[in-house]
Amino acid sequence: MKIRFYLLLLVLGGALQTAVCAQTSNERILVQLDKVISQKEKYRSEREAAIEQLKQRLHYASSNEEKYKLCGELFNLYLHYQADSASLYIKRKEYYNSLQRHSDRDIEIMINHAEVRGVMGMYNEALAELQAINPHQLNSPNREYYYFTIRACYGWMADNTVDKTVQKKYLRQTALYRDSLLEIIPKGNNHQIILAEKLILEGHPDKAIPLLNKVLTSSLGQQEKAYAFYTLSLAYEAKKDIDMEVYYLAQTALIDLTSSVREYAALQRLARLVYHQGNPERAYTYVSCSMQDAVACNARLRFLEVTEFYPIIDKAYSDKKAQEKRLGRILMLSLSLLAISLIVLAFYLYHGMKKLSAMRKDLSQTNKELVAVNKQLQQTGKIKEVYIARYLDRCVSYLDKLEQYRRSLEKLAMASRIEELFKAIRSEQFLREERKNFYNEFDKSFLELFPHFIRDFNNLLTDEGKIEPKPGEILNTELRIFALIRLGVTDANRIAHFLGYSLATVYNYRSKIRNRAKGDKENFEQEVMNL
């Protein structure tokens, strides 16, 4: 059971893959056909240019023989393009033939009349013209032309007849003339195509298909290729293979339209198939194109074929367009509601983002302040670390010196050297040296912490007011006062006590330097503290 189930899955999978591949292939060729239909005017212009070139040659032709031949070429170009013009050039052929009559040309002109009347739907007149001819008295080209035309004429009449009995009669006649044509036509591509057509109508499409595929491998003209493709579509129609029928009808239609043929059957048959496959828009395009061409060519049969099916496709197309319009309105309404919702949401988000931006700004400012405070704290910590270490060291050194000084005084006292003792006690040399050493230590420590202080401080002053220490000095009095201010000692009493100056002297120094400031004098000391 499992094996059977797997086999069934394989068969279904293969069938599905084949269907998908065929659909993809058909879609490609149908898109190509859509493009050709949209460029139909370009191909029409090319055909008109070819016709105009022949007309110019006819105008300048010197012999009646050449003019008759050119009128025949123009007749062939107009036959499936504009039947009325084709009739005009038959009359011109009659005229040039009358100047130098040939019996074979008389027959050719009679068949021309029948052929163009068949295209225009004048079947009785066409048959009357053909039945007046005895095919056994014709030369080989005219006999082949005769059987080809009369077979086509009976085929058109069968297609245009509602009465089934009469239709069968016409189909029998078509088959008889097809057989006659097969007997006389030389072996070649046309013979094989007509034979394949016979096999299809006799119920043997599987025999016809390889025959036609072989024909397509040989060198063919556009008209022969279109004939082969169309016959292949009939074979696949008989086999009920819709995808392949669509493919070969599309191939035929491509040749018809690129050749700017206006009397054709492939495109309207293709319109029916794509309609039944659920594509009324494409079917409408094809049937509209077919109707326009049939009217322009004055091909009555093709026009009737189109008008028979046109209302059905037109209604389906209109219904679909109406449904699309309704869906479009619903979609537009939905999009409008969505747009309004998005606007409201955007408005809400805008205000939310605005608040968030303000909060971010506050946080950023707070962060900057914290960074500045942290930096200041780090600096303060570094200052404390440096100065505590230095001043602990200085205190120990000072205690040692005091001990040495005490011992020197003790020695003088023990030696009863009273005069020298009083002299040492009264002397300020010891204090001056210690104060000098103390300021040197302060200056060194400060410049270790702020190595660019002198340069940065002078940048705050005018060029005339800049201060530079004298040779041998590290900092002078003015710089030392503002070094203390940079360290946060702003009280004048503490500065005066630290430097051993009077309060008035410190005020004078501070005021003198402030007056030399480049910028705002009131904020000068604050700027110094920020160095």
Description:
There is one protein chain. This protein is mainly α and 531 residues long. The chain has 22 helices and no strands. The protein has helices spanning 2-38, 40-60, 64-79, 83-99, 103-119, 123-131, 140-159, 164-184, 189-201, 205-216, 222-238, 242-258, 266-276, 280-297, 300-414, 418-426, 429-449, 453-459, 477-486, 492-499, 503-515, 524-529. 26% of the residues are buried. The model is unreliable at 1-23 (pLDDT under 50).
Helix content: over 70%
Mean residue pLDDT: 83
End-to-end Cα distance, whole Å, is 94 Å
**Helix vs. strand class:** mainly alpha
Q: Quick one: how many beta strands?
A: 0
**Residue ranges: pLDDT <50 for 5 or more in a row?**
1-23
Number of helices: 22
Main sheet properties: none
Outline: rod-shaped
Strand content: under 5%
Specify Rg, calculated over alpha carbons.
Answer: 57 Å
Summarize the helix and strand pattern as letters. HHHHHHHHHHHHHHHHHHHHHH
Outline of the structure:
With 531 residues, the chain is mainly alpha-helical.
Question: Which short descriptors sum up this protein?
Answer:
22 helices; disordered N terminus; mainly alpha; 531 residues; rod-shaped
Topology:
Elements: H1 2-38, H2 40-60, H3 64-79, H4 83-99, H5 103-119, H6 123-131, H7 140-159, H8 164-184, H9 189-201, H10 205-216, H11 222-238, H12 242-258, H13 266-276, H14 280-297, H15 300-414, H16 418-426, H17 429-449, H18 453-459, H19 477-486, H20 492-499, H21 503-515, H22 524-529
Helix pairs in contact: 1-12, 2-3, 3-4, 4-5, 5-6, 5-7, 6-7, 7-8, 8-9, 9-10, 9-11, 10-11, 11-12, 12-13, 13-14, 14-15, 15-17, 20-21
